[in-house]
Amino acid sequence: MSPAPGAGHQRASCRLHRALAQAAIAAGADAEVLEAVDVALPGGKLLVPDVVVVAAGAVGETTTRIPCDAVLAVVEVVSPSTVSIDRAVKPVMYAEAGILVYWRVELQSTPKAVACALSRGRYVTRTTLVAGTPGRITRPFAVELDPDLTRRTA
Questions:
Q1: Beta bridge partners of 45
Q2: How do 31-35 and 51-55 pair as beta strands?
Q3: Which regions in the chain score pLDDT beneath 70?
């Protein structure tokens, strides 16, 4: 069993959730943003992304697993204990499932956000944002973001 994520990881996840939810509303997207839910992949596999954007109609009150074909984007916040899984294993699994957008947020050293889009069965980096320099990620909808997501705010 993995240890619970630290405060910085949880702050980042919450702030990403909030930014994506606000962007979905601004875009008029029929989508819902959730944290730490089961995503069902082909072959009976399950993954739990830190943040997931799903088609709103795919989520009901009793939904326990989100089918991968209802997922618009997944976001993984990299922790020291999950670096190799978040960089190498999960992207391959998400790509094989046909999830169109994958973001990876790195918090160690210089924080950054890497936004990738599915192309020919693999993820291609479309945008990389570095902490201290806010920028825009356009998929699954436009989001203004500074990857310095762990600082404590008043």
A1: 41
A2: antiparallel
A3: 1-3, 153-154
The sheet carrying 51-55 orders its strands as: 31-35, 51-55, 71-78, 101-106, 112-119, 122-130
CA-to-CA distance for 141 and 30, rounded, in angstroms? 11
Fold annotation for 7-145: tt1808, chain A (3.90.1570)
Q: What is the pLDDT of residue 126?
A: 97
Q: Token pair for residue 129?
A: 């944002």
The dihedral over CA atoms of 28, 48, 150, 111, expressed in degrees to the nearest 10, equals -90
pTM of the model: 0.93
**Helix, strand, coil shares, percent, the chain, to 5:** 30, 35, 30
Question: pLDDT at position 153, please?
Answer: 64
- Residue showing tokens 């500074």: 146
**Cβ–Cβ under 8 Å, residues 77 and 113:** no
Q: What is the Cα–Cα distance from 45 to 55, expressed in whole angstroms?
A: 20
